[in-house]
Design brief:
Layout (H helix, E strand, L loop, with lengths): L1 E4 L1 H8 L7 H8 L4 E5 H12 L10 H8 L2 E3 L3 H7 L9 H13 L2 E4 L11 E3 L1
Parallel strand pairs: 1-2, 1-4, 2-3, 4-5
Helix pairs in contact: 5-6
Length: 126
């Protein structure tokens, strides 16, 4: 199966946070699954670091992406075009792009964000 991780899920995975459910850890560890992390996540992490918001990183963002071993999902034109088709449930531009990417890539979005759960896409609630 194909999965796309939300930014907080990516950070929980990197930092081996306890709040990441065992079932999700199993999915992320299963080499039969395709796990995507979007460049949107790197963008969001960069902005949060610059704004000195609390995110824990043991190394650079680039190193974090390499360490995770997930497939990096670039933003492509079909993702951007999908944004116009989304409901206005959630205003966060990073989350909206992740929703669009999951939709276009036919991937299940792994997230704990209840606003995202309202969208008509495959979601794995974290």
């Amino acid at each position: 199966m194909k999965y796309l991780v939300d930014t907080h899920i990516f950070l929980w995975w990197l930092n081996e946070e306890e709040q990441l459910k065992t079932s999700i850890k199993s999915i992320l560890s299963d080499t039969d699954n395709i796990i995507y992390v979007s460049v949107v996540t790197a963008w969001e992490m960069s902005l949060k670091l610059r704004a000195k918001r609390k995110i824990k990183l043991k190394s650079t963002i680039e190193d974090c992406f390499q360490k995770a071993g997930f497939e990096i999902l670039d933003i492509r034109l079909p993702h951007v075009l999908q944004l116009a088709k989304l409901q206005d449930v959630h205003k966060d531009p990073f989350d909206r792009m992740l929703i669009a990417q999951a939709n276009v890539e036919e991937a299940t979005l792994i997230t704990g964000d209840e606003k995202i759960w309202k969208y008509d896409i495959p979601i794995l609630r974290a």
